[in-house]
Recover the amino acids of this structure.
């Protein structure tokens, strides 16, 4: 028994069973859609808000603001509702309607702007005026520390320390940074693999940031390899995850799965774990499953 916050984390790690792999290679999916808010971002959202409250940076009267592509916003809205905090979320106008409605259902105010860079500028400008406290997932160490505390230890435990490769899509880069720090401390030989879209691709949850907007928490030395993912491959693999494995996920998860399959072709033995960032029901109004 416990409260909603206690339900964050300890998500399932399930094996991919319906794809032809070499005998010595196994792929596992970390199902982050099983978090109460439906994504891996529940972990970072709670750690950012709770840690700021512990330090006295946030009180019940504080108004929060954050730019988000969707999942972090939903997670923050959920956590803010638990703690009774006011929250404005700033999101690209191309985001699916499901995301906006979910944030509003939790009581958040949602502002839609042209793109993610403009959203970030807007949130930072409002915060500098003093009326809002910005959590700033892109530069906040509490983002990646959530994964040092929870995500990575769970993966290490559930693979009995036998993981050889970790694959994650890169947006704010919090998941891959925190998981890398912990796993490399356990075994420096574990390969940390990030995914980013090809230049012409648009994949929700994965970004190729312009240099000026590269997340400040990102440390390139903590990623052994980056694999570019096309929109077509991410879409194909997302649909295959759903129809062959019963894993209902978003396109960033399909991108990570594509990278995991590529790695599986390259090695003769190993345990590959990739992050399934969220659930597919956030994309039903798009053409992802069309």
């Amino acid at each position: 028994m416990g409260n909603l916050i206690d339900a964050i984390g300890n998500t399932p790690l399930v094996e991919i069973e319906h794809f032809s792999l070499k005998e010595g290679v196994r792929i596992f999916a970390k199902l982050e859609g099983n978090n109460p808010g439906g994504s891996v971002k529940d972990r970072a959202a709670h750690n950012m808000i709770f840690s700021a409250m512990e330090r006295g940076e946030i009180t019940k009267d504080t108004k929060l603001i954050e730019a988000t592509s969707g999942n972090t916003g939903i997670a923050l809205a959920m956590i803010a509702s638990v703690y009774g905090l006011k929250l404005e979320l700033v999101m690209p106008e191309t985001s699916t309607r499901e995301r906006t409605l979910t944030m509003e259902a939790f009581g958040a105010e949602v502002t839609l702007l042209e793109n993610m860079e403009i959203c970030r500028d807007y949130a930072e400008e409002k915060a500098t005026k003093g009326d809002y406290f910005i959590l700033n997932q892109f530069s906040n160490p509490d983002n990646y520390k959530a994964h040092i505390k929870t995500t990575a230890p769970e993966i290490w435990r559930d693979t009995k320390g036998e993981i050889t490769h970790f694959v994650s899509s890169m947006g704010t880069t919090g998941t891959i940074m925190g998981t890398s720090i912990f796993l490399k401390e356990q075994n420096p030989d574990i390969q940390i693999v990030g995914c980013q879209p090809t230049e012409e691709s648009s994949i929700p949850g994965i970004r190729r940031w312009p240099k000026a907007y590269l997340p400040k928490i990102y440390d390139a030395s903590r990623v052994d390899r980056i694999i570019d993912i096309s929109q077509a491959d991410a879409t194909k693999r997302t649909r295959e995850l759903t129809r062959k494995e019963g894993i209902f996920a978003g396109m960033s998860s399909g991108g990570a799965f594509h990278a995991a399959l590529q790695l599986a072709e390259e090695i003769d033995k190993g345990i590959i774990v990739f992050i399934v960032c969220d659930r597919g029901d956030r994309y039903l109004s798009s053409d992802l499953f069309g």
The helical segments are 41-54, 71-83, 97-105, 116-128, 141-158, 174-186, 231-245, 251-266. The beta strands are 13-15, 25-31, 63-67, 86-92, 109-113, 133-134, 165-169, 191-197, 225-229, 270-276.
